[in-house]
Amino acid sequence: MTTPVPPNAAKTEGCRECKDLECGREHAAAERDLSRVTDFNVLICRHQRAHANGS
Ligand SMILES: [Zn+2]
Predict the structure, then answer these.
(1) Which three-class secondary structure state does DSSP give residue 14?
(2) What CA–CA distance (Å, rounded) separates 11 from 7?
(3) Which end of the chain is more exposed for a tag (fewer CB within 10 A), N or C?
């Protein structure tokens, strides 16, 4: 049986770390701190990959 699970939609919902990372990225973007935005993008990407792996 196959369960169609979107890569990083459902699981990231309600994840506090996802929220924190996105929040941090928004703050960095608001401050035009592009290097921090990039940092957060990497962290979010890495973290969501962990979600995709099912851990
Ligand atoms: Zn998460």
Answers:
(1) coil
(2) 8
(3) N
Q: How far is the CA of 24 from the centre of ligand 1 (A)?
A: 14
The span from the CA of 46 to the CA of 43, in Å, is: 5
Q: How big, in percent rounded to 5, are the helix, strand and coil portions of the chain?
A: 60, 0, 40
pTM of the model: 0.71
Structure tokens at 45: 């990407």
Ligand 1 centroid – CA 13 distance (Å): 8
Cα(49) to ligand 1 centroid in Å equals 9
The model's pLDDT over 3-55, given as tens digits with 9 standing for 90+, comes to 555 554 555 678 999 999 999 999 999 999 999 999 999 999 999 999 888 75
